[in-house]
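Hi L., both proteins are below.
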Amino acid sequence: MPARVAAFRPADLTAEQRELYDRLLASARATSSRPFPLADEEGRLRGPFNGMLLSPGLGDALQELGTVVRYGTGFTARQKELAILAVAAHERSEYEWTVHAHAALHAGFTEEQLTAVRTGADCPLDDPAEAAVLTAARELAATGDLTDDAFTAATDAFGLTRLYELVTLVGYYRLVATQLRVLRVTE
């Protein structure tokens, strides 16, 4: 299925779009080592980032939130990837899954664990906090809420502050998955 919005060429950007474009390419997500560059060989943004140029003010606020969610919470890299992958699996977001499955493997997850996350099966995790993150993220992605028991289990496992961060992380990645789906972004 073709993308519904063609990737913007850098030469065609408005001044406001160019400001956001430059900020995105200078961000932590672009400068960290990753096999999924934010821009293609012609400089066009990939993934959810091209869509952000449609409304630069909103796109900038969204990318700022994404930076904090991705790099500014108290979660470990493994915990974040588990939560993101739970959302990607629930939303059937192939772009999110591909990017974050790679990051999860780099963080030490096994293919068996990734398959379990993707299929919703029990995931063999040695760390109880990771298991609690996955359980809560799955419930949040599926229902948009937590039962009283799930809320208590999550706060007991990693605290109220981390739970607030998890709710925000799950909401952010659900939003991104929706944008990717509606715009038909696959790469």
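That was the first. Here is the second:
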Amino acid sequence: MKNNDFILFAKKNNGEINGMTCGWVTDGILWNKNVKMVFVRKSRYTYEFLMDSDHFFTAKFDDEKLLNYFGSVTGRDEDKIKKSDLKIVSENGREKVEGALENIYMRKIAVFDSSKAEFLDEEISKKFREDEDAHMIFVGEIL
């Protein structure tokens, strides 16, 4: 698995969906729940969707052109889902992308602001010290 082979999707309460290639993704067990954590800068358009949504989902792809497109173009400027011919369907009230290698649907259970983190590793602190465009960490319970 590569770090950047996921597209993160979030759906606003009004039904609008946006996606972005998400390189910082991890999963595991937290609070006795199977979770996935995604790290999104506050400046990203998808951040607005994540803040307005109770759920989000990831879709895994091995299409480098698609992943690069979703990582380099903002949804503020164009409808990336429509332009890329992705088909998002709802199954049992959960969205997924047809043709994705894997779809994981999550319920948002926590949000952390990384600018408030205390970095103990000096190298990480120098390289990733957060500013006003800090990464927000969204924790989703895998459903």
